Amino acid sequence: MTAESLIPKTELKKKKETIMSAMNTPAQPTTLEPVKFEQMSLEQETNPWEAQAARFDIAAKKLNLDPGVWKVLRYPQREIIVHIPVAMDDGTIEVFTGYRVQHSIARGPGKGGIRYSPDVSLDEVRALASWMTWKCAVVNIPFGGAKGGVICNPKKMSQGELERMTRRYTAELIEFIGPEKDVPAPDMGTDEQTMAWIMDTYSMHMRQTVTAVVTGKPVNIGGSRGRREATGRGISVVCDSALKYLNLPVEGCRVIIQGFGNVGSNAAKLLYEKGYTIIGITEFDGALYDADGLDIPSLTSHRKRAGTINGFSGAEAADKDELMTRECEILIPAATENVITSQNAAHLKCRILCEGANGPTTVVADDILEEKGVFVIPDILANAGGVTTSYFEWVQDRMGYFWTEVEVNQRLDTIMSASFDDVVHYATTHAVNNRIAAYMLAIDRVAYTTKQRGIYA
Ligand code: GLU
User: CATH for 224-420+432-457?
Assistant: First the structure.
């Protein structure tokens, strides 16, 4: 009996219908006019795909993009949906739904993380895949964009269940991924261990060890030094650049960070070491505030011990939504999408918004922030440190020669600060905000390559 035949017939029918409707969704655009986001409902406003497409349309129009190229770049090239049977610890079989969306391979292999979360949806993965294309183009690394996701709750699964799910997901994608095709990496809910399982499963099928199939691996099996901290490090570099650009001192620069996962905690650590004052940290289960600055190393040890930031004696507890609206020089959303929306954007009191997460700000909030004069360092620039060091990892794997952490970090710093300068320069010369400048710069680069290669239509 195959694993799939264990799914009740009605379930299978429902799944097939879902797949059919999902496959029919990304139809050709009916109009090339940018969406009217003043008329968006909150549901539309917080749909990540709509958010991505809205910015894409604005930037494409400003670029006067060729209509054919516009259509090609607006939609993902390939969307894969898999239903993954997993043997659970209690002896039952569970079936999980997973996606891998490859938005573009114009500039190189698809690149992007894999997310494990109960909230994963095809629209979210589509948006994240497109953002990867633009992100890689902003920092000018030779990758396209892709993203994967599995609808599951990793916090409620055992290591064994996660390993079996990861291996079967990899096996389902075996002909679509590879060092020259599409290179996954960690994202929310996945980590170095997940990448090690993917690398091993892929290698078993290929009958040889292929380290360059994923990035974000443990260092002893082809991972890069500095990859774990890379996104946080990139954030700290663009914060430095923004302060310089705005003529603000590091001393006394107050920072509030939303999220204390891999991105938020490493950004906090590095900014703290550089002399920034981290006055607030918010997490899904609580928030901390200290006007004189939190002691980040002590907080990190506390979190390790207690499993939560709550109960840390060196700061006062705060309300997590309210804390984001307190006065600071830099606000860093470093968790998930849609935290800055039409509902709270007007209340923010930050000078700089540095987007550590993907898609934390909605398109309606963009306008409000622009009116308030907030200096936005958009996600596709601010959090590009992770994929940039992933690129270094892929290069090192293919060379079989590994760099020191100092070398990795120096290269990362150079790319991040040059990319910041490119985006800000583009914004000034084209009289657009930083986000639209980043999109325009990226779309222009991908469009140029697309035209040069020619459209196989
Ligand atoms: N998941 C990360 C991102 O959203 C890293 C992707 C990668 O390294 O490929 O940028």
Answer: 3.40.50.720
